[in-house]
Amino acid sequence: MSPRPTGLFPVVDAERHAKGRQKMHGLALYISHVWEAAATTSTSLCREHGMEVDTERVALETAPALAAIRTLDLEVICNSQSHADKDRYRGLLASDSQGQVVRGLVLLRNADIHLPATVDVQTDRIIGGLNHVRVFPSWQPYDQLPDAIRISTKTGSGVHAAYRAAVGGQLVMDTLLDAFAFFRRCDPTLARYVPGTDDLEYFPLKQYISHDYDRRHPDQPSRPQIEAEVRMRAQQTPPSGKGRVILHSFSSTGVTIYCGTTIRSYIEMDFTEPEDQVARDIQAGYPYVAVAADATRHVVSADGGNRLFADGSPLAQLPLCTPREHPHTEICRERWQAAATDAFEYRDQRHLRDC
Asked: Minimal CA–CA distance to 327: which of 263, 268, 285, 265?
């Protein structure tokens, strides 16, 4: 087996290297524990609040991972470098996307060790049954962290900024895998490999049922990266079906969103789409029509500036209908929110196969 590259910041001190090996082994193990905890979470049904998911075990399993990340960052990598290389390492932490994750996680580690506030996780996506569910935990957005964490001056302002930019709202698994990948880039010899191979121990993580994408290895792209690719590909290809019928419109963050039905072979499917994407679809040859309040149908066209027209008049000036069988506008808003925040939901809305 060929020797592994030394990495960006090799740890040459024998004692620090041994400590780094131990902490990288621990980090890989702790990541697997978080993964398993998220896949076997207990849940219960409450008459007043509906399904209540217990994520405490997930939060508990993150604590040793956060501690290992801080030790690898400060004691192993940074403190093993020369004065000039320490500055270069800190520069990488500030400029590198995975380095920003490592830096931002310091806020949670310090809070867990030094502050009375509870470091918790949230989840807005679950799959599974009534006894055990699989959750997809994410870190609290910065503005939703406990006051004791946000107002603490014991942690530098740069760490607070890094948390806001690279950690808050992100999946816990993505951030932990990013941290592992970052340290491996700094010194690949710190990681544990299956003897005689270049395969990392513990990875890929055990596969559980999933509806779209799971990152199970530090070398795999993060979910945001995959979602960006999925959304871009979905936008570049016109929707499936024979055409779309616009029935409603509403404004979301200053953007006009159109919603209606996609005409398919056997059934019609609801859609929500921003104005500029409707224009791009039309320019690619995909047909849209709009139904007015008086039930008249109007062919929708687009000009070079992505402005939409209904039989030559601005589409925005056409009073749209609200047929009885179509969901109300507030339901369309909910569907758009789902499509806007989940690229897989958006892809399925545009490209579900005819049935």
From this structure: 268
Place of tokens 């030790």: 71
Q: Which long-range contacts (CB under 8 A, 24 or more apart) does 51-59 make?
A: 51/126, 53/123, 53/126, 53/133, 53/135, 55/120, 55/121, 55/122, 55/123, 55/135, 55/137, 58/34, 58/121, 58/135, 58/137, 58/172, 59/118, 59/119, 59/120, 59/121, 59/137
Displacement of CA 221 from its chain's centroid (Å):
11
**Confidence (pTM):** 0.86
Helix (H, G, I), strand (E, B) or coil at 153: coil
Chain position carrying tokens 């507030």: 330
pLDDT tens-place string over residues 253-288? 999 999 999 988 777 888 999 999 999 999 999 999
Interatomic CA distance for residues 156 and 87, integer angstroms: 16
Q: Look up tokens 């859609």; give the residue.
A: 271
